[in-house]
Automatic annotation (TrEMBL), chain A:
This is ABC transporter ATP-binding protein. It comes from Gelidibacter salicanalis. It is found in: Membrane. Keywords: ATP-binding, Membrane, Nucleotide-binding, Transmembrane, Transmembrane helix, Transport. Gene3D superfamilies: P-loop containing nucleotide triphosphate hydrolases.
């Protein structure tokens, strides 16, 4: 075993009554990797992610994130990760700046550090003109970018992105992936779910989840060879047909 | 949700129709018997026989009786003057001083009527007695009572209601705000974002409490100003004491609100449950129905009603001028309650489901 693996999952399962939303999945994610966690709607991506980020108790199986156990060290995991929910989850009734200050504060950043970082961030996102406006009034694409930046604000080791590009236009999606690359380049491990198969091409490695199980896991290139497919979309279709 | 919709209102129906009546019962009756005659004892026994009065307590002096009333140990004190029996024979007319605790004006009014009725029936019985003793011309005997209402001399409805209404305002706003709060964050998804941060549960709850606490204190201040300016309600006791008590009391209410919020999934559910408790708390607070008039089981329930303590303290401090030691029992119970409810709020807030 190498120390490069920042996420290790073995037989992780989540039952809702008799229904296995996540059914004994196993995988590992290496440090600095962009790991695509693919699957159709309802495949169990969000459920699996919630177990990894320590807000949902697994029914069985094992998992460690950043070296901490999901059962017993959830609060330690939380210090080392960022999370962007699939539902927009910043405070609509706070301004851009207030949201940044608030979440920066929770992670224990000093006032000075928050001030420096937030100024740089607002500039980078081009939000200077709306920095003192309520977040609720921003267009969805801007909200998503802000939300991503807030999840990275405390320099986490791993960031979990749940359908970060859901519902945004292709140009914004493109920009979003540039931001993801930039974060990965700085050494952050990216764990990203999506049901857009074309986005899978941007990932170092992808897993494909079908009905709670991981049916395929490899680099996009190898998966295309394995399934003799033109694109990741074809891989997915072949998998789905069984 | 469906069981809640039916069970909670039915519970309210059963509890409240038994507990929250407008009858005044179990009135704590005291007397000062300066005459110590058969006549005076017979009169006192009349009160003992009544189902409305109990705890017949003798006081040696008006001062001792007054002190007992301040402590809330007695509701009504009747003073029988020296030579009562003899004067009654010679003059056939007598007046009796009755002091009634009118901090709850509605109850005081009812008590005064009861007292008059008992004295009337006593008058009747003396007339009959006299007619048996002698064939002499029967003079009608008349005892009249002259009530003296303490703490609210004119039985001004507003004097005893405004402090109570103020209690309700502070309580309702803070309970509903806190009850809706966490559950609202659950609905919009921000709670999940908070739950993935390393924030401590107690930090989160304290962060939630503080703004509502400040709102509650501000409401009290505005309410007190209005009570003074518009209703001219007296403020006999210490404002500081009132603020001290309120600052702890609001924590109880907020703890209950946050506890409800943690256990519900939608604002609708939270609102429903908050209303359920609110209605029971209000109607069993002693604001409308005196607690002493309630059946024993209902009285026991009121021990867990924070509004009851606040109504008591508010009336005691504002109308009686009670001091720190007088309200100490309420203060301690409220403090324990606050610790308990906020402990439960922290405990029931789960970062991992
Ligand atoms: N709290 C829950 N209770 C019951 N079923 C759930 C719950 N959360 C998710 N599910 C079910 O689990 C399955 C996987 O959901 P989810 O993880 O949200 O899928 P994805 O994120 O891949 O779209 C779905 O069928 C969903 O209905
Ligand atoms: Mg999902």
């Amino acid at each position: 075993m190498s120390h490069d693996e920042v996420i290790k999952v073995e037989g992780l399962t989540k039952m809702f009554g008799d229904f296995a939303a996540v059914n004994a999945i196993s995988f590992e994610v290496k440090k600095g990797e962009i790991f695509g966690f693919l699957g159709a709607n309802g495949a169990g991506k969000t459920t699996a992610m919630k177990m990894l980020i320590g807000i949902s108790h697994p029914s069985s199986g094992r998992a460690t994130v950043a070296g901490f156990d999901v059962y017993t060290q959830a609060e330690d995991i939380k210090k080392n990760i960022g999370y962007m929910s699939q539902k927009f989850a910043l405070y609509d009734d706070l301004t851009v700046k207030e949201n940044i200050n608030f979440f920066g504060g929770i992670y224990g950043l000093t006032r000075k550090r928050i001030k420096e970082k937030s100024e740089a961030l607002i500039q980078e996102l081009g939000l200077e003109n709306v920095a003192n406006q309520l977040v609720g009034a921003l267009p969805l694409g801007w909200k998503q970018k802000l939300s991503f930046s807030v999840s990275l604000f405390h320099d986490p080791k791993i960031v979990f992105l749940d359908e970060p590009t859901g519902g945004v236009d292709p140009i914004t999606r493109r920009q979003f992936w540039e931001m993801i690359y930039k974060a990965a380049h700085q050494g952050t491990t990216i764990f990203v779910t999506t049901h857009y198969m074309d986005e899978a091409e941007y990932c170092d490695r992808v897993s494909i989840m079908v009905n709670g199980k991981i049916e395929a896991l490899d680099t996009p290139k190898k998966l295309k060879e394995q399934f003799q497919a033109e694109s990741m979309n074809d891989v997915f279709l072949k998998l789905a047909r069984g | 949700m469906l069981p809640i919709i039916f069970i909670l209102p039915l519970l309210q129906l059963v509890i409240l129709s038994n507990a929250a009546t407008f009858e005044v019962k179990n009135i704590k009756f005291g007397y000062i018997d300066n005459d110590r005659s058969a006549t005076s004892r017979a009169l006192i026994e009349k009160f003992g026989a009544s189902t409305y009065f109990n705890v017949l307590q003798a006081y040696p002096t008006q001062i001792r009786a007054g002190a007992a009333m301040l402590r809330g140990e007695v509701d009504v004190v009747m003073e029988i003057p020296q030579q009562f029996a003899r004067d009654l024979q010679t003059e056939q007319h007598h007046t009796l001083g009755v002091t009634i605790n009118a901090i709850d004006g509605a109850a005081a009014g009812v008590e005064n009527v009861y007292i008059s009725q008992i004295v009337q029936s006593y008058n009747q019985s003396i007339i009959i007695d006299l007619s048996q003793i002698s064939d002499a011309q029967i003079q009608p005997v008349m005892i009249e009572t002259i009530p003296l209402f303490w703490y609210n001399e004119t039985l001004n409805y507003k004097t005893f209601m405004v402090p109570g209404i103020l209690v309700l305002l502070v309580t309702m706003i803070t309970l509903f705000l806190s009850g809706m709060n966490i559950v609202r964050e659950k609905e919009i998804g921000t709670l999940e974002q908070i739950n993935v941060t390393p924030i401590k549960k107690s930090q989160f709850i304290i962060g939630k409490l503080f703004p509502f606490w400040a709102i509650g204190m501000a409401l009290l201040s505005i309410g007190l100003i209005i009570a003074k300016l518009i209703f001219n309600i007296p403020m006999l006791g210490s404002l500081l004491l009132l603020y001290l008590y309120t600052s702890i009391y609001i924590l109880v209410v907020l703890g209950i609100g946050l506890f409800i919020s943690n256990f519900t999934d939608t604002q609708q559910q939270a609102m429903f449950i908050a209303w359920f408790f609110m209605v029971i708390f209000i109607l069993m607070s002693g604001l409308f129905t005196p607690i002493e008039s309630m059946p024993k089981w209902a009285q026991l329930m009121t021990e867990f009603n924070p509004i009851k303590y606040y109504v008591e303290v508010m009336r005691m401090v504002m109308l009686k001028g009670s001091g720190f030691l007088d309200i100490l029992p309420q203060l301690i119970k409220t403090l324990v309650y606050a610790i308990l409810m906020n402990g439960l709020a922290v405990w029931s807030y789960k970062k991992t489901t």
